Amino acid sequence: MRVVITGAGKGLALELLRLHSFNGDTVYALAHSMTDELKRLSEQNTDIHVYLMDIKDEKAIVNAFSDISDASLDTVYNVAGIWCSDQSVGIQDTDMSKVRDMLSVNAIAPLCVMKHSKRLLKRGGIMLNVSSDFGSISEYERGDNYGYCMSKAALNMAGKIFMNETKDSDIRVYCYHPGWMRTQMGGEAAVKSSESISPKESASALFELLYKNNSNISGMFFDYLNKKREW
Ligand SMILES: NC(=O)c1ccc[n+]([C@@H]2O[C@H](COP(=O)([O-])OP(=O)(O)OC[C@H]3O[C@@H](n4cnc5c(N)ncnc54)[C@H](OP(=O)(O)O)[C@@H]3O)[C@@H](O)[C@H]2O)c1
């Protein structure tokens, strides 16, 4: 397979990269910075092609994709994301510049990746947007996290429109809630909690569903337990 993974330096994206690399796949890894682990893996495997960029930079995305020949991609994973932990606050304390940052990285950047990778996806290819349970309007009952929740709800909408637009091209589009993971984003609380999961567990669950058990995926918006999530 040939896949694109954004945010590939760490966390869930790095675990997806490991799985694809182990599977013998070609990986176009769009990463913010060259982490030690990404460097090690890409030095060991010439089928991992690393492009360092700020995912908000449309030109950098276009340049990376110019190396890919037409309609040869099996899957595009939009994984890069940010969470501003000081924004778990109500509206009075919400910092609009951080709301803009989260919308830019979590919603507009993946839309840009969708735009420029559409022509490169094979028939039957997959657009996998990593969303969050916090992007579910009907499930969210808290009075905080405006920016992050808005960004993931917007990403879900982008995925839905993309699915409507590409239905004749046989492209599969999904929004994936990866669970509360013990990553940089999950933070200290995830490390201490028995309710969190490792990014490796989440990546393995997703990989299994997408490539070995895809007829059983429970809906367009699903989670690491293959539970259908509500919009
Ligand atoms: N962790 C959770 O509990 C959780 C729960 C629900 C959903 N999610 C979603 O799952 C996805 C992966 O999360 P994770 O926990 O693996 O996060 P993570 O460990 O913090 O990794 C996020 C990745 O995104 C990259 N990134 C952030 N801003 C970027 C930018 N402007 N340009 C390029 N890359 C950028 C980061 O690079 P740098 O660090 O170098 O900036 C990093 O490689 C995210 O979309 C997140 O919203 C996570």
Topology:
Layout: E1 2-6, H1 11-22, E2 26-31, H2 36-44, E3 48-52, H3 58-65, E4 73-78, H4 96-117, E5 121-130, H5 146-166, E6 172-177, H6 187-192, H7 199-211, E7 221-223
Parallel strand pairs: 1-2, 1-4, 2-3, 4-5, 5-6, 6-7
Helix pairs in contact: 1-7, 3-4, 4-5
This protein binds NADP nicotinamide-adenine-dinucleotide phosphate.
Rg, alpha carbons: 17 Å
Low-confidence stretches: none
CATH architecture grouping? 3-Layer(aba) Sandwich
Mean pLDDT: 97
In the CATH hierarchy, what is the superfamily?
NAD(P)-binding Rossmann-like Domain
Q: Quickly count the helices.
A: 7
Concise description?
By secondary structure, the protein is of the alpha/beta class. It contains 7 helices and 7 strands; from the N terminus they run E-H-E-H-E-H-E-H-E-H-E-H-H-E. The model has no long low-confidence stretch (mean pLDDT 97).
How would you characterize the overall build of this protein?
This protein is an alpha/beta fold. The chain has one domain: NAD(P)-binding Rossmann-like Domain (Rossmann fold). The chain is 39% helix and 18% strand. It has helices at 11-22, 36-44, 58-65, 96-117, 146-166, 187-192, 199-211, and strands at 2-6, 26-31, 48-52, 73-78, 121-130, 172-177, 221-223. Strands 3-2-1-4-5-6-7 form a 7-stranded parallel β-sheet, with helices on both faces. Strand 2 (26-31), helix 2 and strand 3 form a beta-alpha-beta unit. Helix 1 (11-22) packs across helix 7. The radius of gyration is 17 Å and the shape is globular. The two termini are 30 Å apart. The mean pLDDT is 97. The structure holds NADP nicotinamide-adenine-dinucleotide phosphate. NADP nicotinamide-adenine-dinucleotide phosphate binds at residues 7, 9-13, 32-33, 54-56, 79-83, 105, 130, 132, 178, 180-181, 183-186, 190, 199.
